[in-house]
Structures are given as C-alpha cells and as structure tokens.
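ok trying this again, last paste got cut off
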Amino acid sequence: MLEYFDVRQASLKFADLEASALAKEYGTPLYIYDASIFETKYRKLREALPSQADIFFAVKSNPSLAVVSLFRSLGAGVDLASLGELQTALRASIAPQKIVFTGPSKTEAEIEAAISTGIFAINAESERELERIDRIAHAYHKKFPVGLRLNVGFAPKERTTVIGGTAPQKFGIDVARASRLKRSSTTPKIFSGRLLSYHRKLTQSCVISIWAAASGFHIRTKSASSMSGRLGVGSRKF
C-alpha cells in the first residue's frame, strides 16, 4: 500500500487531504478510506480476469455503506455473511441477482430473507443447511439456486491464523460427504434442480503467496468439475 502514499512527506495525506486536518475536523478515532485506491485495485483485478468471471466484494471485510456503494458503481456483486449485510447491500442498491450469501450457521430468518429477496445464490455449508434451504424455498414455491462450499483437504505451507479449505474444517462440506449427497434420501427435492452452482473459496484467508492461491484455485476447479459430474448438476464459476 505504500505505493499510494508519499512517506517522505512531513505529514500523512489522503488524496491531497492532510490527515491531521481531517482528524481536527471530524475527531478521533477516525477511519479514512481513499475511494481512488479501491477503484484502482478493483480495475486491476477486473483487467486480470476473463470477462466471464464475476467479482463479488466480501461485505464483512468493510460493511461501510459508502464502500459497498462504490463497489456497486464499479460493477461488483457482493458476498454476504449476515442479515445485516444483506440489508446494507440493498440500501446500497445492489441488484439481488448480484448477491451471494455465504457463511456457516445461517439462521432461518437469514435464509428466508435471502430467498424472498431473490438473491443469486446461497452457498450451503452442510447437508442440514441444504435441507433447510430446500424446505424454506418450497414454502415460497421456488427452485432456489444453491452453491456447495467444498473442502478438498488442501492447505499451503505458509503460516496463517485464518484457515479455510483444509480438512476437517468448520467451513463447508468434505468432498467425500458431498459425493454421497445424491444418494441421500433426505435431500430429494434439492437434486430435482435446486443445486445449480458450486462455490469454491480460495485456499484460505490471509495467504499472500500468489503461487499458493493459484494452486488452491486449480485444485478446487478440478474438484468442482468432477463433483458436477458425480451429482449430475451444472457448475457455474464465480
């Protein structure tokens, strides 16, 4: 981030505004975000990805209404983890079809709100959650798009304190268990057409090695393709 700030200056500046002057005007503690940096980072990522790849901003990383609205104006969708974040996304005028709901321990109220709003998809973390989504969607007479959050047992060697993707894990469904879902008698409605997409998290949070991230993404892509064939459902990439 130092490329965006002149560390040789006598005082810190944000977009030509003196940090000390902002603190004097608004008081402290004060959180300052430079929209031009968000925009620059987003456009670099957009240019690096193929046109069919969609970008979803994780609202939990910064739930500020102004920040979420900025990413909406740039063309991003949003990834949610709570009912409050869904409300923030709607206040920011995010189109429902550009909203994905992810995260463990979703409440009945959160699932119902997501389905009634008509968001793009819910990423399910377990067999029980699939059943709950199916039951609530059935009450709304909808076949609702659902993603499976898969754990493929891969982890990079670098150290990190926030992990996602290794097995066993509190997040998602292990591949072996997911492979048996179609044979389960408890989820017949889901496989009549509601399971339409796969959600593949990158290796884990806080990983800064591009090689580790690329390796994790490659493994998850192969796993999702294989799982689509086993379950007889389509696979959408986002």
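PB: full thing came through this time. The radius of gyration is 20 Å.
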